[in-house]
Amino acid sequence: MQNLTLKTPVHTTLREAIADSLREAILQGLLKAGEKISEPELAAKFGISRTPIREAFRQLDSEGFLKVIPRRGARVAPLTEKDVVEFYDVKAVLEGYAARLACTRLTDRDLERMSQLNTQMAQADGSKEYKQVFRWHMDFHSVFLKACGNEHLYELIQMLVSKFQRFRMLLALAGKSERSIQQHKQIIDAFRRKDVVLAEKLVIENAMTGKEMIVGEIFKEMKGVI
Which of 5, 62, 81, 179 has its CA 20 to 30 A from that of 167? Predict the structure, then answer.
């Protein structure tokens, strides 16, 4: 953990700063799958109490970055092909259905917002601001998910995505968002035309693209890291 640094930007809590530091170290391969993360060591390294560290551990456990075991501490969670495949298969079905429901409910304002977010995502990708790519990508999907009109479906998808944020961050940080950006344009066009069948199909294809890229490309590039 000697490579860890703690940055505390304005309006960022200590818990968030710790979580960001650990998350980035895991994504960059500085902390390997199965490696133990010690509360006492982090507290001593950063000169802080263990409370915000424990809170950060819980957050990262919920996002799939750490595996926290009571009285045994935390370790970097392994990332397997099976995890990726199962996550994206479920995500595809749920988001595809949400797109079907949202298709006739999205307003012109919603569609303009989606177009704006996709443009911002493309600009961030072009300037290699990959963390921002991830944020815009999440916001893009949230627009039509919120518009689906089924609160339980929306909450279920949000819970699933939150637990597996690590996968989507990998895509953004690997600079492999160009194909997704192009698919987003097609999705917006299908929504504009109120083409329910096509919108569902394209959203499913968008999820499958994420699965294919992580399993087919990113896993190979990160061999020995995850």
Answer: 5
- The pLDDT assigned to 26 comes to 83
Q: What is the mean pLDDT of residues 116-138?
A: 92
Cα Rg, the chain, nearest whole Å? 19
Q: Which pLDDT value is given to residue 224?
A: 46
CATH number at 60 reads: 1.10.10.10
Look at residues 140, 60, 144, 167 and name the one whose alpha carbon lies nearest to residue 94: 144
- Residue 1 maps to a domain: no
* Burial class of residue 121 in the structure, from the number of CB atoms within 10 Å of its CB (0-12 exposed, 13-18 middle, 19+ buried): buried
Instruction: Tokens 């693209």: give the residue.
Output: 209
Looking at the fold, whether 93 and 61 belong to one and the same domain comes out as no
| Vertex 184 angle, CA 182 and 187, to 5° | 120
* pLDDT tier at 134, thresholds 50, 70, 90: confident
- How many domains, the chain? 2
Q: Could you say which of 24, 46, 76 is where a domain stops?
A: 76
Name the residue range of residue 151's domain: 81-221
Q: CB of 46 within 8 A of CB of 6?
A: yes
- Alpha-carbon span 197 to 154, nearest angstrom: 20
For the record, the structure tokens of 24 come out as 């980035």
The amino acid at residue 171 is: L
Q: Is 149 left (phi over 0), alpha (psi -120 to 50) or beta?
A: left
